[in-house]
């Protein structure tokens, strides 16, 4: 089970006050963290900071990344979630050759601002090859009802309808690149990704490779939710 | 597996470099700049004007009574709308016209006896019959006096308090039984999911800070005392405000 | 006329928790088993899916998963001088129906009773003297001991994957657990649930007064788990839609998640749903059951012959079926004679509400059915009752399970019942309030009993069960004392306002308290004062076993489910290892 140490808890408490898609975060009464500055985040995303390459180099300024699926889509992702991933990269809960040094080098305020910037983006959808229809259908079943034979609940039960996400803590899957989804599921399956172990590692360990490919293919082509990421209340 | 060679990084830099000028972050939607409080206050103001309801069960006189009564039971103030603005009359109308109003899950065999208060509801009326009978009696009583909707707010409150206290027979419905049912229905209509016709735009949930139907808090439950300000979500919509009707869940396992 | 079906070895009346466990085990032992369930077929897929299941109005208020009292209700009165009237809408308790029964929509709170509970009369007389117990109370020993049940408690907890921290392993007190619990042979199968803010506040307050808080044992699981049946459960996500709702995450122990799939795969086991059992049939001697008669969904009647009848229909339904089948002598409260219907008990619950300033965010909607923090210092006989004029006790805990607003909108005393003041108070206090629960013993009394109603009938024309119940003086005194203790903890928790609401008479069916109905077909050593023997075998009809909380001679301070799970495995043991080898009475009267 994930144990959050005191320092992370304090930061997390502040992050809890962030709306997933808002700009400046409303500050909680007991929150000591400064509110996020979206404009500053945009500059860091575009230009990088203090020896750290610009996020936009891989994730694009819009957050839509490139079409390869090598870099996840982060446009419109919950700021809380984005910040947590950066902390996980810095603390080795997640390990990635590119992200780990970036996360370690980027100061916390910068991380907060960049996360808020990308959270407010819609990001373009690049044209991608259509996946096999039967595979997508298989993925849709997993997304909507899970696998009863393995007692695996529907992805949507936690990730929201059609994978729209349940902010702040649960990321969207809708429109996420299939290659990235599949990669992360494999990371959990092999024990390399240590965040959300009880939620995701068990699920991933039980999915066979075809199921992983199916659910990834399904979510990549979901548009309805994520494409409207910009229209918040 | 991702191919994150330095070569790849450097070749992609050029492609995105042109696109990432500061000017383009004006594309960040203005709505994303709203702080939570402003958005909520604007919504509250917008919702103060009650929207027209298509009544399927209540007739005009009944609707007039219900609209006025619920507006006193949970009034609007300058911070938050009340039951009327939230669509509670619509909720009550749809419930009375539906299965619950017709007496689903109500043991309806006689013989009929008034019991002790501990024995609960012992009348033959279905909820629809109860509302209809009681409101008809009220409207009859007030026909030659001031109709309920035309009373001042204080007079309306006094009238409701008198109903609540009991002692008045409304065509066979004790007034306190009617009041209790009306109050329960008002609370339900105020706080239930908007798919049922009340709690319009989830104003009641915003008022108290209840996040609604989408519920998964494993990551957050031990972050004690954090201020949780996610916009609430209804059964029928996703976090971006889009309605999803999920016909995809099969009747039988595949 | 009822069509006679092919005989089977075992029929279970009801396929809830006890029926599912018994059915699975006996089918696995090679017997032909038929499970008859009056309600519908239902399963996680497709019936319990998010977000549809997160609908407070439909499931918590309209009670969509519960028994439909259009078909079958109960009648209630406080005493014999009243006429019992139907509970026309479920309110005070909410019996389940459908495959899996009420374990589909319980909270997962999983406590063992105390060792003293099973020898209650003996224990109390030894400690306080023969004249200490109020003569109105008909408490008696159970005929089985905690030590005999311990391995069966363990087995049930491991079936469920119960999350917790042991406080007493083989007599050695363990830090972090409940030091006042009966011994366990090993720790819980999964670690304790995360502690929400309300639990942490309670923990601090209780510790400051010298009490011993511990994590509430939870069959809503803290982590993924594979049970001994090979079924996998997931971790609970604290969604706040637990009791009255089914779990979409496979994180709550229910027959569907912990045992039924194994039964349903076994060709020896057959499930029939939407079938209402009308009576158990007896032969001409009246001492042997020949099977049951039931009506299917279309109203057609069938006779199902069987070698054994297991009545596993829930405490109240168990007793009604015995009465409608003419099994056992009906208890008469005036004479004290007879056994079926005696020692009915319930639960004595009360509450304390702790109101905080607006900067204290409780977030009650982030909760599980069993993610609370509890003290056992005032339960059962865990404290010296000598100075007091009552027996029994209550656990105290911050065990909030939800923040669903139709049900939960606390306001401090003095708030108007409706209007602007009410609304403003609700907005002010919703997210800054902790509710403490005081969950107390319910002792049987001479006048509290179950029998058949003389007037009201169910949809099949059979008499409804009549419940005659009022809280005994003893329990009211107990509630007052322990609620005071809870209020002290509330003040120690730093609440700005602490409002205590001890249990008062009269008992009312109009306000939900618990669905912990016990007794009416109690177990014991003497057929003159019990319906079933210590193996839950009917004294009068040895091929009938009555497996439910109907067997409890009294209800302890705790939720009844875990003890019922233990008794189910205990009875199964006797059936498999003794009864099947040599059918007949397992205990000589």
Describe the protein in words.
- The complex is a heterotrimer of chains A (233), B (254) and C (589).
- Chain A has eleven helices and no strands.
- By secondary structure, chain A is an all-alpha fold.
- In chain A, helix 2 (38-47) crosses helix 6, helix 4 (79-91) packs across helix 5 (99-105) and helix 9 (178-189) crosses helix 10.
- By secondary structure, chain B is mainly alpha-helical.
- Chain B has a domain at 45-208.
- Chain B is 39% helix and 2% strand.
- Chain B has helices spanning 6-17, 36-47, 60-73, 88-96, 127-142, 153-165, 175-191, 203-208; strands at residues 169-170, 173-174.
- In chain B, strands 1-2 form a two-stranded antiparallel sheet.
- In chain B, helix 4 (88-96) packs across helix 7 and helix 6 (153-165) crosses helix 7.
- Residues 1-48 and 250-254 of chain B have low confidence and may be disordered.
- Chain C is of the alpha/beta class.
- Chain C has a single domain (3-579), classed as FAD/NAD(P)-binding domain (3-Layer(bba) Sandwich), CATH 3.50.50.60.
- Helices cover 22% and strands 18% of the residues of chain C.
- Chain C is built from 13 helices and 22 strands.
- In chain C, strands 1, 2, 3, 11, 12, 13, 14 and 22 form an eight-stranded mixed β-sheet that branches. A six-stranded antiparallel β-sheet of chain C has the order 8-16-17-18-15-21, covered by helices on one side. Chain C has a four-stranded mixed β-sheet with strand order 5-4-20-19, with helices on one face.
- In chain C, helix 1 links the parallel strand 2 (8-13) and strand 3.
- Chain C is globular, with a radius of gyration of 23 Å.
- Chains in contact: A-B, A-C, B-C.
- At the B-C interface, helix 6, helix 7 and helix 8 of B face helix 3, strand 5, helix 11 and strand 19 of C.
